[in-house]
Design brief:
- The chain is built from 14 helices and 16 strands.
- It is of the alpha/beta class and about 450 residues long.
- It binds pyridoxal-5'-phosphate.
- The site of pyridoxal-5'-phosphate (PLP) has 14 residues, from helix 5.
């Protein structure tokens, strides 16, 4: 039986939480055919998720007909919000001409040119279909280029589902080990050899990082860094930390790989540029696909030559849907809309949001800290000093307080993460949506 949401009349008497909710029925069906009832853990919500029917601008309508303001934007990927008219029109036109070929198309050349023009340290790019693939390709390129096999990453940082970068992504406290030499922990399904080839670094701890990098320098192909890692609570790098990583890697012939999958939305020139560093390679995703599946790896011509089949090919790179013209069209139209002025406006609205959040917690006399930058925010309900993954002890992604808060916010017409007070903005938003969000959060916290 097909659940034809487009034929459902809106404004039913059902709503989320009611015994007759369509979302509940869909979740029961989903649970029979998909483990846990989903195919993506980050959208899980107890007792069942809200199923979306449509989105327009910064608003999403669910299958019950209830509308909410979307502060998650498919986990930051929809910088223009939903169904932007120009992106939609361009995609419709492109789909009618065919969606995938065993040939390149002009659209992929144009998107590559746009990225190369905008990102100072990128001479060449290659496309794939997800941020995870982009990170994997960057790691493989670094290994092939340097002839070394280990990588280093930061404890708690999320970089997608490639085995090596998933090491110590979310380690339990009893697995941490020494604070200046974190244990490499893996999940079941990952061979122990993976842990042996990944050095785990503590965020913002310069001395410990220096020692760990020096100890493994002869084997290290890359240090992988997200300049403002969501998995580490968007705790900003301390002054000089990223520059230190740049210098330290260069000194030992290790490549610095920036994961810009999420944080490319920080500026017209990307995250690394905003933080003042020039990595050797980077992974991209999310906003550059304009709402469609995408990933890209980019870097200097010299390093990217490992993918060049006309030279000495060292990293094989396939992918049936790589650079398909539908994604490329959506990405191109989206990125064209995101002029320097559009980024500035959105980032100013982000400043406004973080200021209002800070003031709200202050007025409530609640210990809290608002992290994030650009168009993103993440509030921690703690007065403790936040430095690295371990200092987030009080902020657990599985802390039930956030699930409860998310439910309250959903009832008040706001979409935020069920795993923290995390959200992001889209260009259709104004101060009015932010004010409504703050008001809803304030009364939910009460
Ligand atoms: C920093 C970072 N890297 C990589 C990924 C993986 O991207 P994808 O979900 O497109 O595979 C994500 C996804 O959220 C991310 O935030």
């Amino acid at each position: 039986m097909l659940f034809n949401v487009s034929q459902r009349p809106l404004r039913q008497t059902t709503s989320y939480g009611s015994p007759l909710a369509f979302s509940r029925q869909l979740y029961e069906r989903a649970s029979r055919v998909m483990p846990g009832g989903n195919t993506r853990h980050s959208i899980a919500l107890a007792p069942y998720p809200i199923y979306a029917r449509s989105g327009s601008g910064c608003r999403v309508t669910d299958v019950e007909g209830d509308e909410r303001i979307d502060f998650l934007n498919n986990y930051t990927s929809l910088i223009l919000g939903h169904a932007h008219p120009q992106v939609t029109a361009a995609v419709q036109q492109r789909v009618a001409l065919g969606s995938a070929f065993t040939m390149p198309t002009p659209e992929d050349v144009e998107l590559a040119e746009l990225l190369v023009e905008r990102i100072p340290y990128v001479d060449q790019v290659r496309f794939c279909n997800s941020g995870s693939e982009a990170v994997m390709l960057a790691v493989k390129a670094a290994r092939a280029f340097t002839g070394r096999h280990k990588i280093a990453k930061f404890e708690g940082a999320y970089h997608g589902i490639y085995d090596y970068v998933a090491v110590s992504e979310s380690p339990r406290e009893d697995e941490w080990g020494e604070s200046d030499a974190p244990v490499s922990s893996t999940e079941p399904g990952t061979p122990p050899s993976v842990a042996a080839d990944v050095i785990v670094l503590p965020w913002n701890r310069m001395d410990a990082c220096r020692k760990l990098i020096a100890r493994h320098k002869d084997d290290l192909a890359a240090v992988l860094v997200d300049p403002m890692p969501l998995g580490i609570g968007m705790i900003a790098p301390q002054p000089g930390f990223l520059e230190f990583l740049r210098d330290e890697t260069a000194r030992h012939g290790i490549l610095l790989v920036a994961d810009e999958v999420l944080n490319f939305r920080l500026s017209y020139h990307g995250a690394a540029h905003r933080f003042g560093i020039e990595p050797d390679l980077a992974s991209f995703g999310k906003i550059i696909g304009g709402g469609f599946p995408v990933g890209a790896v980019g870097g200097s011509r010299k390093v990217m030559s490992v993918f060049d089949h006309t030279a000495q090919l060292r990293v094989h790179h396939g992918g049936t849907f790589n650079a398909n013209p539908v994604t490329a069209t959506a990405g191109l139209e989206t990125m064209k809309q995101m002029s320097p002025e559009a980024f500035d406006r959105l980032n100013r609205l982000g400043d406004y949001t973080r200021e209002r959040l800070t003031r709200m917690f202050h007025d409530r006399k609640m210990p809290a800290q608002v992290c994030g930058a650009g168009s993103m925010f993440l509030a921690h309900l703690t007065g403790d000093e936040l430095v690295d993954f371990r200092s987030l002890r009080g902020f657990s992604r599985n802390n039930p307080i956030y699930g409860g808060l998310c439910h309250q916010m959903l009832q008040k017409g706001m979409i935020i993460s069920p795993r923290g007070i995390f959200g992001c903005l889209s260009t259709p938003m104004t101060e009015a949506e932010v004010d409504a969000f703050i008001e809803a959060l304030n009364s939910s916290l009460a």
